[in-house]
Amino acid sequence: MGSTLEISSNVQKQDQKKNENSSLQMSLNKKEGRESESLLSAQEEEDKENVEGGIWDSLQSSFASFTGTGDKGTLSQVDEKETLNIFSLASGHLYERLLRLMMLSVLKNTQSKVKFWFLKNHLSPTFKEFIPYMAEEYGFDFELVQYKWPRWLNQQTEKQRIIWAYKILFLDVLFPLSVKKIIFVDADQIVRADLQELADFDLKGAPYGYTPFCDSRKEMDGFRFWKSGYWASHLAGRKYHISALYVVDLVKFRKIAAGDRLRGQYQSLSQDPNSLSNLDQDLPNNMIHQVAIRSLPQEWLWCETWCSDSELAKAKTIDLCNNPLTKEPKLHAAVRILPEWTVYDNEIKQLQQRVLRKLEEEEDEEDDLNLNKAKDDHEEL
């Protein structure tokens, strides 16, 4: 499992006040002759052309009240347009260890300035204390965000399902309006490509892009539930997409009120405990007719469980998916599949050790100063 870093309270932790969910009321008049058209049509060309300015510009200050509170990391003033924004979340020491390695793999392969966004709610104090030192070492920005679950929205109780819900339900309100695009990367992934390429990928008007599940590992055909029954009928020839990696055009996402649509469908489906088994995945795939998904090229996500060995060489990201056949632990799979994983893991451990030594030295210096001050005070007496 590796060593964990226990950092004493040299870093002050201060929680910001939680945002109260707000509501914004608007009165809109439809044009003559267009009374029967939906205001939220995802296909409306006029919406596509005109929303960029106008009403959204006038609402920016009001909409800001919907966003989650954030704890900022490094103080870089890099323009958001020049920054690659990466969103991820983790809970527990194993996934936080995997998350640090995922971050390092992004930084090793991406030329752009990177800002990581993390869901604050379930991160350990150890992770939150270490991340500023990692940011200083590798030159990235970060921010911890949170958003209070709305009282009206059906609540999840299991931690894993809460995390899944935050992956998809609040994309429109977690981030400030200055963030135009964001890429979600699962903690248990290793990136081998420049993610700027994914940020620049043409989504063809869709609000987000996901990678479809691989079909190439034939021994897993019996586990591909989307190939039959409800899902086969619902998708009607479309692909079922995996939620481990996706890119979101937040401008488009907000234009078509995709967040409201997803939350509304979630509210309906989540009343049934047998629905949304894979919440973060099932919900966007269920809503594919209302909120379009742009399929990313298959090489953007390789997972040994579903993808053939021959496709690994060209993979741009590698996900440590659970395998229902082998049930191999993630750390074993990581070392076996990814030569760079151990290199990255050792690099992070070395940084943790340097940080720990630095903090111990600072603590010793502070003790010496206090001792000398006590001696001086005693001599004066």
From TrEMBL:
It comes from Stichopus japonicus (Sea cucumber). Its cofactor is Ca(2+). InterPro entries: Glyco_transf_24 (IPR040497), Nucleotide-diphossugar_trans (IPR029044), UDP-g_GGtrans (IPR009448). Keywords: Endoplasmic reticulum, Glycoprotein, Glycosyltransferase, Signal, Transferase. It holds the Pfam family Glyco_transf_24. Recognizes glycoproteins with minor folding defects. Reglucosylates single N-glycans near the misfolded part of the protein, thus providing quality control for protein folding in the endoplasmic reticulum. Reglucosylated proteins are recognized by calreticulin for recycling to the endoplasmic reticulum and refolding or degradation. Residues 84-351 form the Glucosyltransferase 24 catalytic domain. GO terms for molecular function: UDP-glucose:glycoprotein glucosyltransferase activity; unfolded protein binding. Belongs to the glycosyltransferase 8 family. GO terms for biological process: ERAD pathway; protein N-linked glycosylation via asparagine. It catalyses: N(4)-(alpha-D-Man-(1->2)-alpha-D-Man-(1->2)-alpha-D-Man-(1->3)-[alpha-D-Man-(1->2)-alpha-D-Man-(1->3)-[alpha-D-Man-(1->2)-alpha-D-Man-(1->6)]-alpha-D-Man-(1->6)]-beta-D-Man-(1->4)-beta-D-GlcNAc-(1->4)-beta-D-GlcNAc)-L-asparaginyl-[protein] (N-glucan mannose isomer 9A1,2,3B1,2,3) + UDP-alpha-D-glucose = N(4)-(alpha-D-Glc-(1->3)-alpha-D-Man-(1->2)-alpha-D-Man-(1->2)-alpha-D-Man-(1->3)-[alpha-D-Man-(1->2)-alpha-D-Man-(1->3)-[alpha-D-Man-(1->2)-alpha-D-Man-(1->6)]-alpha-D-Man-(1->6)]-beta-D-Man-(1->4)-beta-D-GlcNAc-(1->4)-beta-D-GlcNAc)-L-asparaginyl-[protein] + UDP + H(+). It is found in: Endoplasmic reticulum lumen. Residues 1-51, 359-381 are annotated as: Disordered. Transmembrane segments: none annotated. Residues 1-13 have a biased composition (Polar residues). Coiled coil: none annotated. This is Putative UDP-glucose:glycoprotein glucosyltransferase 1-like. Pathway: Protein modification; protein glycosylation. One of its GO terms (cellular component) is endoplasmic reticulum lumen.
